[in-house]
Amino acid sequence: MTNTTPYPSPARHITLLIDGWDPRTEGERVAHASFRSHFSGELIPMHRDTAPDHATASALVFSPDLSRTLLVFHGKGQFWVQPGGHIEGHDASIVDAALRELEEETSTDRASVQLPGAYDLDHHTLGNRFGACASHLDVGIAVLADPRAAVAVSDESEEVRWFRVNALPDALANGAERRILAMQERVRNS
Fold first, then answer.
1. Mean predicted confidence (pLDDT) in 146-158
2. Which of 31, 33, 128, 169 is the most exposed place for a label (fewest CB within 10 A)?
3. What is the per-residue pLDDT across 71-111, written as a single tens digit (0 to 9) for each?
4. What is the DSSP secondary structure assignment for residue 25, as one 8-state letter?
5. Do residues 68 and 163 make contact, with C-beta atoms less than 8 angstroms apart?
6. Which CATH superfamily, name and number, covers 10-188?
7. Which residue, among 32, 1, 37, has the nearest Cα to 17 in the 3D structure?
8. Residue 56 burial (C-beta neighbours within 10 Å; 0-12, 13-18, 19+)
9. What pTM, to 2 d.p., does this model score?
10. How many CB atoms lie within 10 A of CB 8?
11. What is the DSSP string of 30-50?
């Protein structure tokens, strides 16, 4: 069952998410302040061509019992990470962008997932393998999906796999384990 609540445009949506987010740790407070700083001016960095530091959307996907998470092995980064990427002009909202990325990178049908309403904000720098992108201001949307459903590799990933949350792979993107565990807790408490 998919949440069909209409969302505002991605730029307005990200502002609402920033305003409504409740940071729980010092790291989350730092990320929250960074998002406020980047999204409070006239130029809203929603797309990679607007600024080297710009918004992205990702899907932190869990099994309904929250014991497993779906990750992709990122070809460019050479690490495991949640599905996600740049916001595109046709994305109706941040949630729409995250679900589009999930579908593109794993073949998970957006109509088959549930949205528990939890999200996070994460500002992370990128290495030189990512070209003109200096950092991503990533909004991670919690998603529940059936781990028995078929998934498939895309052009952007070398592998797609479900992992037990208590047995994540060693080659994780920087900060991914922290985000997965924090989101698992947010969903449990939502």
1. 89
2. 128
3. 999 887 789 999 998 888 899 999 999 999 999 999 999 99
4. S
5. yes
6. Nucleoside Triphosphate Pyrophosphohydrolase (3.90.79.10)
7. 32
8. buried
9. 0.89
10. 13
11. HHHHHHHHHTSSSS---STTT
